[in-house]
Amino acid sequence: MEAASIPTPAAHEDHHHGPPTANQSSRVNSEVLGILLFIISEIMLFGAFFAAYFFIRVVNSDAWPPGDGLPVAVAAINAAILLSSSVTMHWTDVSAKRGNDMAMRVGIVTTFLLGCTFLFIQINEYLHLGFTPETSASASVFFGLTGLHGAHVVIGLLLLWMSAVRIFKGKVGPNNHRGLEVPGIYWHFVDAMWIVVFTTIYVL
């Protein structure tokens, strides 16, 4: 009589190769969670620049604003432009979830153009300020904060461009809008951060 075969450990092994699927305990989508964590790190970066601003202006009592003054009216117009782009970005995201291709295309193009307009006005403002980062510590922190935000606008525009390409290729819709939602969250962050920068630098 043959001896009963003894199952080897190999017989019970799972044939799945690679690491196991990650357990997602959060209800937040992983892509959305990733951009939110990234934004938190960016807030910390801006916080360091704001700390330098308050130290120079309050603790060190440097003259503010630097130079002969800041173009508050121009910055306010830019704030309105950027806030408008946040509205059109939200409209684009809603249109994607509803499957409205035409509204999606108009929305993303409008948002991109408004962002470019903001950047153009800010660069033009730099050229007519009458002072440079080397003028004083106050001038340095002004260019540091507004330039940091401008860099984030450039990154946001690149993300909007990539989203626009996907939209015009028909790759965004009700069942596939995450690639648009994530850049939209980043763009809303950029818009909100400008309100903080504008209020702190130009108004207070």
From TrEMBL:
Principal cellular location given in the protein's record: membrane
PROSITE patterns registered for this protein in UniProt: COX3 (PS50253)
Domain (Heme-copper oxidase subunit III family profile) ranges: 33-204
Pfam families, A to Z: COX3
Protein's cellular compartments: Cell membrane
Keywords linked to the UniProt accession: Cell membrane, Membrane, Transmembrane, Transmembrane helix
Membrane topology note: Multi-pass membrane protein
InterPro entries: Cyt_c/ubiquinol_Oxase_su3, Cyt_c_oxidase-like_su3, Cyt_c_oxidase_su3-like_sf, Cyt_c_oxidase_su3_a-hlx
Protein name: Unannotated protein
